[in-house]
Predict the structure of Sulfotransferase.
Amino acid sequence: MHHRRLYRARKAVGVIIVILMVRILLETSSRYKSSEDPISLDVATHETKKQIPTNKATKPIHLSNGGGGFQKRYADSPFRKQMGGGPLPLDTADFLQSETMWKYLNDTCIEEGHIAEWQYRVPYVILLGAMKCGTHALTESLWEHPLVARNRYWELHFFDSDKPVRTEKGIHAHQTRTAYISAFRRHSPEFFAQLDNNGTLNDKKKMIVMESSPRYILNSDRIPQLILCTVPWVKFLLLVRDPVDRAESQFRYLYASRLATGKPMVDWQRWIDDDLRLLQVAGVLQAKTRDEERLAWKRYQRRPNSDMIVGRGMYVLQLLDYFEIMDQYNKSRSDMLVLQSERFRRHQQSDYNNVLQFLGLPPFALQNVTGSIHATHHKDEAVTAMPGSIKEQLKHLYRPYNKRLYALLKWRKDLRWDETQVARPQQ
Ligand SMILES: Nc1ncnc2c1ncn2[C@@H]1O[C@H](COP(=O)(O)OS(=O)(=O)O)[C@@H](OP(=O)(O)O)[C@H]1O
């Protein structure tokens, strides 16, 4: 009786193991041999596995870029042990100064594997942000172009997720690219529909794919390395807006979403003061040299769960990070086009023509895009309007950063926010 039960149990375990093995085999083959993708990635993936043994020392470490996930990862991190196992001391200078967590941010790019011709279009261009500067309007206008594939969602946020593959040896380009392409298969089916069975592009209409993720510019301490290691050919687009107006738009947006979900709203002054304190503790405001400033910005980015309402408007710090990394990757700075949001709103078609020229796309007359995409107005404008005193405080704070931005981008006088009265959009 006992033997019979043992025999049945063993048999059941055997059957389960066989089922599991078959499932794993099926999943692996469908991942790499999707019928949509006639180019088999098996060989390259196999080579990759050989080169990066999955032992403990080189286990992939997924790092997110701020947000709640950080707290979860912190729970198992060596850093937690060092801090005595207690909760993450969010507000201590010690945490912000510590570089323990950063040791995993190894910027070495491990590159191998074959890249097919069509992959250079996935994506061809990335819109980096900035948040609340008209990214929806620019995305929509690019999607209108017959040679730009329309994506399913506005934003993909691949490089600020935990999907890029990092090992202790560095960023793994091939594995990250494979994950990126598979995200685009869901995100941009229109592009993949034009691949024929041999994996070549249909000659009649060679489309390109764009990605738009407004947080990429903010996380400038780590995203450019990830992007340039994974898709080094890509072109960058960036929209910037008077940082004071940008902050006001972000506040209105947050106000509306908090109101909709019944959450209490913090007041303007506290919101600004909290972020100023973080900028101060991280050392951004006091940095004397570019090296100090770069490190301070990195520290500031390590602070999870912050809206970064002030820091987001310090565009020059973020752009300098991008340019410096582009230099390191021997990528021409002319592969970055920065548009001024206010100008784009007023001269949409002419700025659009410049964008098309920058991308090497044929001219196209915009049909639908107006200057009101994703506008965040609130019926209670008196509550959401930025108080005059804060406006002055921020104007003063941003002035030197804006000045550096104008110099970096060689902006004409009529584009400069605090030197001339840049025409404000009509509400
Ligand atoms: N064509 C054009 N050019 C420039 N700016 C425009 C344009 N269309 C809309 N908008 C204004 O852009 C603000 C929304 O920006 P985003 O689309 O980047 O928002 S988001 O970051 O993706 O949430 C939002 O600003 P506010 O209305 O001040 O909130 C939009 O009104």
